[in-house]
């Protein structure tokens, strides 16, 4: 931290106060937002922080001038937040910023148009980021992290402020997305439900009115929720929307969407091409796709094990595990095709023994009972059409379309 | 730490998100199950319209200070005196069976939902050593042959909830808290099994449900404690088994009670725990069960399940065999026979021996 003279400190603080007050008077959202983005580490805010370290009488400075005294409840805690942030007292920086943000919201409600929406976005963003920092500090000190949870409550209040008839309501989706990020991080995604309900059913909101960027983010998160709940058709719809409307330039975002969309597509029987996986660096799915194509159970299991951490972190592991059924179907189909080539008349009668053998070649040790169980399940889930001749340990396949394709529908549960 | 609604910090009409809402529980199991008959209020639902007025919440401190309890008994003296007067004493708290007389060695503080940290006095809160002794005392009651299990369970259920409340109010999150939570979770797991199987009590299913709710809550709190104590690895040797309970609770359709899905939960589990023997076992079981591969499921259970794990798994063993959805084809009969021939013995559950509570 650079040392600053008292005079210089006074000047910097006064300068900031003037800019803040001007931004408010002239309804200059673009300028205002820069003055609120604490974590951006902009040079002007850093130099302000240095000044605050030296000059401790901002209270008087603010209250004695008509120009900014009405903004005192926003400015004073904001200064404290900035100062705390600078000296690494992250819990206090969150707490003070929240106080400031609270006062800001009160003023925001009184302002007429939606001019300050950009600034509000910054405040919402900062609340989340500072809360995350604060929780990290709490955890490292052996305390229970609770600031991010508080940030969630705060943003719900902000959401409430925006959920009205005026022009400000287009900001609600941005705040919603910040809430999603918080709830996902905390793991309390069931709390997303109430916001989702508001967005999707409240008459004041028209989804098409929201900014595109927010719509994409929204669909991404709600799509992910559907993935976690294994609602594949809904997940497909939402994630595909996000993909379609996502900025072509932001490859990182596209990749993030695809990370979830691919397992969904696989679950409804649609396989991506290899070059596609390569282009977006999603090589972890390569072997999974191969296993599905070849009916290679061993390869699937191996692929899941190899990238286990990654799949667990993103939450798609259980979805990919479920693909086993389709792999079995593919294996059976291949056996059937081979048999058909040898003896087309008897091909539809598949001896369970043969499947056991095939699995043994794949180093999967299963006995007749287990194979019978698996085939029973495949039949039940409509992946195989046929029945058992139990005594002779044979599956009798339907002569027509014994291995129905999924055709964009998930496996029957 | 309890995240239930009684620990309000902000605007009281704007309850903090909690994993499930709690309804107040009185001493008698009868009134408890009556409460269960009404549907529990959904605190999340109140925020639907989002039309919250941001009030004077800014004047409230965002950090209620942790209380340092000073109560030297299992029950604060004032509460004990009051309950003696009101004849509100559980059967275990009565001196010589007298319904209006207790003693410091018998009375145990009740759970009270409506208490917030602001109203509470230090003399009403028990410090950690007292809480530990109280817990030991309570769990020893499980030995008692004089009363039916439901009665004992109900008492311990309520009184351990009060213990957790005291721990929360004092912000106790160290390894000793972990040990206490582990014991309480074990109690709930055993209750889970016993209430299902041995209960002749007519409201057993609601007791079972309520117990499951507390089991989940304590488990979740325990996981938070593991996280907080991550750097000092002292009390985390059993973490893998306790994590596996959470996975096993997801077997079958009971997952509605769990709230968030398992996929989401996995994201926050450390890799080392994921790779542990207990977690791998639980995940494998889950896979076999979801797939319908009952043969491997039953074999794995017979081979690897610990006593406590079995307490959770047991309902699904029976479901597996009898549920027609899992064995849908003409092979049904023969497969059932195959299972019976498997002869996998259920591991005997030795909860009478308190090895289970020693750690």
UniProtKB/TrEMBL annotation, chain A:
GO cellular component: transcription export complex 2
Protein name: PCI domain-containing protein 2
Superkingdom as given in the UniProt entry: Eukaryota
A Pfam family the protein falls into: PCI
Classification via InterPro entries: Csn12-like (IPR045114), PCI_dom (IPR000717), WH-like_DNA-bd_sf (IPR036388)
Record-annotated PCI domain positions: 216-402
A GO term, aspect molecular function: double-stranded DNA binding
GO biological process: poly(A)+ mRNA export from nucleus; post-transcriptional tethering of RNA polymerase II gene DNA at nuclear periphery; transcription elongation by RNA polymerase II
PANTHER family hit by this protein: PCI DOMAIN-CONTAINING PROTEIN 2, UNCHARACTERIZED PROTEASOME COMPONENT REGION PCI-CONTAINING
From TrEMBL, chain B:
Biased composition (Low complexity): 13-31
Residue ranges, compositional bias (Basic and acidic residues): 50-61
Superkingdom in the source lineage: Eukaryota
Region Disordered, residue ranges: 1-72
Taxonomic classification: Eukaryota, Viridiplantae, Streptophyta, Embryophyta, Tracheophyta
Short name of one Pfam family: SAC3_GANP
Protein's recorded name: SAC3/GANP/THP3 conserved domain-containing protein
Domain SAC3/GANP/THP3 conserved: 74-319
Biased composition regions of type Basic residues, renumbered to the chain: 1-12
Gene3D superfamilies assigned to the protein according to its UniProt record, in alphabetical order: 1.25.40.990
GO biological process: mRNA export from nucleus
Any one of the GO CC terms: transcription export complex 2
Residues passing through the membrane, by range: none
């Amino acid at each position: 931290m650079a040392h600053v003279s008292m005079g210089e400190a006074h000047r910097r603080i006064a300068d900031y106060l003037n800019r803040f007050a001007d931004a408010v008077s002239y309804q200059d959202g673009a300028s205002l937002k820069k003055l609120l983005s604490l974590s951006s580490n902009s040079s002007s805010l850093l130099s302000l922080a240095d000044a605050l370290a030296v000059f401790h009488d901002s209270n008087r400075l603010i209250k004695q001038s008509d120009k900014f005294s009405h903004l005192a409840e926003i400015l004073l805690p904001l200064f404290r937040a900035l100062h705390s942030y600078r000296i690494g007292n992250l819990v206090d920086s969150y707490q003070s910023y929240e106080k400031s943000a609270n006062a800001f919201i009160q003023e925001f409600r009184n302002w007429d148009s939606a001019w300050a929406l950009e600034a509000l976005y910054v405040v919402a963003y900062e609340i989340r980021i500072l809360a995350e920092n604060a929780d990290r500090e709490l955890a490292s000190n052996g305390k229970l992290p609770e600031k991010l949870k508080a940030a969630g409550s705060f943003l719900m209040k902000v959401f409430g402020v925006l959920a009205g008839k005026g022009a400000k309501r287009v900001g609600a989706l941005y705040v919603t997305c910040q809430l999603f990020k918080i709830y996902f991080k905390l793991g309390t995604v069931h709390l997303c439900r109430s916001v989702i309900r508001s967005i999707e059913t409240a008459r004041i909101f028209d989804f098409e009115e929201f900014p595109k960027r927010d719509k994409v983010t929204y669909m991404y998160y709600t799509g992910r929720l559907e993935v976690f709940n294994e609602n594949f058709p809904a997940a497909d719809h939402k994630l595909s929307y996000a993909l379609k409307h996502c900025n072509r330039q932001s490859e990182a975002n596209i990749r993030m969407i695809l990370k979830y969309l691919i397992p969904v597509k696989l679950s409804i029987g649609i396989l991506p091409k290899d070059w596609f996986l390569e282009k977006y660096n999603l090589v972890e799915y390569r072997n999974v796709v191969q296993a599905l194509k070849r009916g290679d159970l061993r390869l699937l299991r191996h692929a899941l094990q190899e990238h286990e951490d990654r799949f667990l972190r993103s939450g798609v592991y259980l979805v990919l595990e479920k693909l086993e059924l389709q792999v079995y179907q593919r294996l059976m189909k291949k056996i059937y095709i081979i048999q058909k080539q040898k003896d087309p008349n008897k091909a539809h009668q598949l001896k369970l023994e043969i499947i056991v053998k095939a699995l043994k070649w794949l180093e999967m040790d299963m006995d007749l009972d287990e194979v019978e169980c698996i085939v029973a399940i495949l039949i039940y889930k409509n992946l195989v059409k046929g029945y058992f001749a139990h005594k002779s340990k044979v599956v009798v396949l339907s002569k027509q379309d014994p291995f129905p394709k999924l055709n964009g529908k998930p496996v029957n549960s | 730490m309890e995240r239930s609604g009684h620990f309000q910090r902000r605007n009281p009409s704007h309850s903090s998100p909690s994993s499930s809402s709690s309804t107040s529980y009185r001493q008698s199991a009868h009134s408890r199950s009556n409460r269960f008959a009404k549907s529990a209020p959904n605190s999340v639902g109140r925020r639907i319209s989002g039309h919250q007025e941001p009030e004077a919440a800014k004047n409230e401190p965002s950090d209620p200070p942790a209380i340092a309890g000073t109560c030297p008994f299992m029950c604060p003296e004032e509460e004990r005196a009051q309950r003696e007067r009101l004849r509100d004493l559980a059967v275990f708290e009565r001196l010589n069976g007298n319904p209006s007389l207790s003693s410091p060695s018998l009375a145990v503080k009740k759970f009270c939902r409506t208490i917030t940290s602001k109203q509470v006095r230090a003399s009403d809160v028990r410090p950690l050593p007292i809480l530990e002794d109280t817990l030991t005392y309570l769990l020893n009651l499980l030995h008692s042959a004089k009363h039916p299990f439901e009665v004992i369970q109900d008492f311990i259920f309520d009184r351990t909830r009060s213990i957790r409340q005291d721990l929360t109010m004092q912000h106790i999150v160290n390894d000793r808290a972990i040990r206490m939570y582990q014991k309480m979770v074990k109690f709930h797991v055993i209750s889970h099994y016993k209430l299902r199987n041995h209960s002749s009590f007519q409201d057993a299913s609601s007791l079972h449900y309520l117990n499951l709710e507390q089991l989940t809550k304590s488990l979740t709190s325990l996981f938070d404690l593991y996280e907080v104590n991550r750097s000092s690895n002292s009390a985390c040797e059993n973490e893998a088994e306790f994590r596996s309970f959470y996975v096993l609770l997801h077997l079958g359709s009971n997952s509605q009670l769990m709230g968030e899905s398992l996929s989401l939960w996995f994201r926050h589990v450390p890799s080392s725990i994921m790779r542990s023997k207990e977690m791998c076992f639980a995940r494998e079981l889950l896979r076999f069960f979801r797939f319908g591969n009952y043969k491997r499921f039953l074999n794995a259970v017979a081979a690897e399940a610990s006593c406590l794990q079995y307490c959770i798994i047991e309902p699904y063993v029976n479901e597996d065999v009898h549920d027609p959805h899992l064995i849908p084809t003409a092979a049904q009969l023969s497969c059932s026979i195959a299972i019976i021939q498997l002869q996998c013995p259920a591991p005997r559950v030795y909860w009478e021996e308190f090895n289970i509570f020693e750690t």
